[in-house]
Design a protein that fits this description.
Layout: H1 3-8, E1 14-16, E2 18-19, E3 24-25, E4 30-34, E5 41-46, H2 50-67, H3 72-88, H4 90-101, H5 105-125, E6 133-135, E7 141-149, E8 152-156, H6 164-175, E9 179-183, H7 189-205, E10 213-215, H8 220-227, E11 234-238, H9 241-253, E12 257-261, E13 266-270, H10 276-288, E14 298-304, H11 308-319, H12 340-355, E15 359-362, E16 381-384, H13 390-393, E17 400-406, H14 410-417, E18 422-423, E19 425-429, H15 433-440, E20 449-452, E21 464-465, E22 468-469, E23 476-477, E24 486-494
Parallel strand pairs: 1-5, 8-9, 8-11, 9-10, 11-12, 13-14, 13-19, 14-17, 16-17, 19-20
Antiparallel strand pairs: 2-3, 4-5, 6-7, 7-24, 15-16, 18-22, 21-23
Helix pairs in contact: 3-5, 3-7, 4-5, 4-7, 5-6, 10-11
């Protein structure tokens, strides 16, 4: 279906999955990538062995010696060129993202645009890696701080955003002077190979060391190589909370740093002062966009009792208009889940909803027929539940939306919203200024992202992205997220002929 795009992106039937730039090699097993769109084989990728991994580390270490002393604005110029390379290949890469992952073509293009946007952001940031100056208590002394590159940054990304989240990390790490080793999801390996080929072209055109950007492929075992490796001071990982807890323990055990973007259980609060039309748009896209496979997908709709029936009727009616099918067809609203394991998790969640006392408002189910031959297409479902249900407390990566009724004031809704282990994204629909400000206050939403009159998904790269509690506490993308990719150093310069000690300590010889 996308053979021309694969060819332009430099992909073949069998691809090496280990790369240190122009040097491609792999001696491991084969990963077969099947599209959830139609169940067809897209291509194959060879995995990374321990010996392959060691070669990759050696290449990255050697490249770091050159890259760390390259002026930051010149590093930014390389990132700018990568952004241009993405612009030239946006349509092809966007279609590959859509076909290999299953999100709509428009969302695939949007993901590549996120990559372009973070490149633009990073180019500007490359001239603003600021430190501070401080007044010394000692006369004739100057104090300041500066930031230096860390070294090798390991990136482990998830299937739902197979290219964008890597670029969030890589673009900033590169302008900070770090080199990057990337392990893409084994469910979307071809997207990783395609991106590596693009940055490889940029590095080659600028006669730069190939190890600035490296690629490894495989399952959790390759991720363990990275999490246990003292030569990688920072590991950025996106995925489930279960995975994050394991990785964090490994990295902390060697006193490394982990940047974690884990599960979400995101809610929209709908108050009596909400705009119904805006609520429907935000809630429906948040719940069914990417077939509910975003970490920021809307899982819970917390609706005031006075608005409950109106909101319920409007959203149920909107679900009746959803078109489910091939995501490359731009008329479709919902594509497939990533694989049949995800379908099973979706089915199990709906069974548990009923077992725990929930009421199904919009029936789910697996779609069958010629248009759904992959077996990965499901119907978005809606259930009336209580927040304390065990299944509601956990994230199901599928298009299941839970309706929860609240009474009283917005504090009651906030108690429900915050009453889960995750803390990524949140939103409130209200035209009441006091409710909005309460939601955004220290006593309001406990999530890393808190929106007013927009949904829970669709973050811009200019703001720091991440969440609290079991979401991991990491921050990527905009604002001052660049700081985690660097080490801070405090410097004191004495320009006198005396050597006074701090705190007035006397030490005379």
């Amino acid at each position: 279906m996308i053979q021309n795009e694969l060819k332009k992106l430099g992909l073949s039937e069998i691809n090496d999955g280990t790369s240190t730039g122009s040097n491609w090699f792999s001696n491991g097993e084969i990963i077969e990538s099947y599209s959830p769109v139609d169940g067809k084989l897209i291509g194959k990728v060879k995995t990374t062995t321990k010996e392959d991994y060691e070669k990759t580390i050696a290449s990255a270490q050697e490249a770091f010696k050159t890259w760390r002393t390259t002026p930051a604005p010149l590093r930014g110029e390389i990132v700018r060129q990568f952004g241009d390379k993405l612009r030239a290949n946006k349509a092809e890469l966007g279609k590959l993202v859509s076909y290999e992952m299953g999100k709509s073509y428009q969302e695939g293009l949007g993901e590549v645009q996120e990559m372009i946007d973070i490149c633009d952001f990073a180019v500007g940031q490359s001239r603003q890696l600021y430190g501070l100056t401080m007044h010394s208590e000692r006369p004739g002394h100057r104090m300041y701080e500066q930031y230096h590159p860390l070294g090798i940054v390991g990136v482990i990304s998830a299937f739902n955003f197979p290219v964008a989240v890597w670029s969030w990390n890589a673009a900033l790490a590169w302008i900070c002077g770090d080199v990057v080793i990337w392990k893409p999801s084994e469910k979307t390996p071809l997207c990783g190979v395609a991106c590596q080929k693009l940055i490889q072209e940029v590095l080659k055109e600028n006669n730069l060391p190939e190890g600035i950007s490296c690629l490894v492929n495989g399952d959790y075992k390759v991720g363990e190589f990275m999490s246990q490796d003292k030569r990688i001071p920072l590991v950025s990982a996106t995925g489930s909370t279960r995975m994050g807890k394991i990785l964090a323990k490994e990295v902390a055990g060697r006193l490394g740093t982990s940047l974690l973007e884990l599960g979400g259980n995101n809610a929209i609060i709908v108050t009596p002062d909400a705009d119904i039309k805006m609520t429907v748009i935000g809630a429906v896209f948040g719940a069914v966009g990417t077939a509910g496979q975003r970490c920021t997908s809307t899982r819970r709709l917390i609706i005031h009792e006075s608005m409950y029936d109106k909101v319920k009727d409007a959203i149920v009616a909107a679900y009746g208009q959803l078109k489910i099918g091939n995501p490359l067809d731009e008329k479709m609203h919902v594509g497939p889940l990533i694989d049949k394991d995800a379908v099973k998790a979706y089915q199990n969640a709906l069974v548990k909803v009923k077992e725990q006392g929930g009421n199904i408002l919009v029936e789910g189910g697996v779609l069958e027929g010629a248009d759904y031959e992959s077996g990965c297409y499901v119907k978005p479902a809606i259930a009336e539940v209580e927040n304390h249900y065990e299944i509601v407390q956990h994230e199901t990566f599928a298009p299941i939306l839970y309706f929860i009724k609240y009474s009283g004031d917005v504090e009651n809704a906030l108690e429900i919203q915050n009453g889960v282990a995750q803390g990524l994204s949140s939103a409130i629909m209200t035209n009441n200024l006091r409710e909005a400000e309460k939601f955004l206050s220290a006593g309001g939403s406990d999530c890393g992202i808190a929106n007013v009159n927009i949904g829970t998904s669709g973050a811009e790269i200019g703001g720091a992205f991440g969440g609290e509690k079991e979401t991991g506490g990491g921050r990527e993308s905009g604002s001052d997220s660049w700081k985690i990719y660097m080490r801070r150093q405090t410097n004191t310069i004495n320009y006198t002929t005396n050597l006074p000690l701090a705190q007035g300590i006397k030490f005379d010889l």
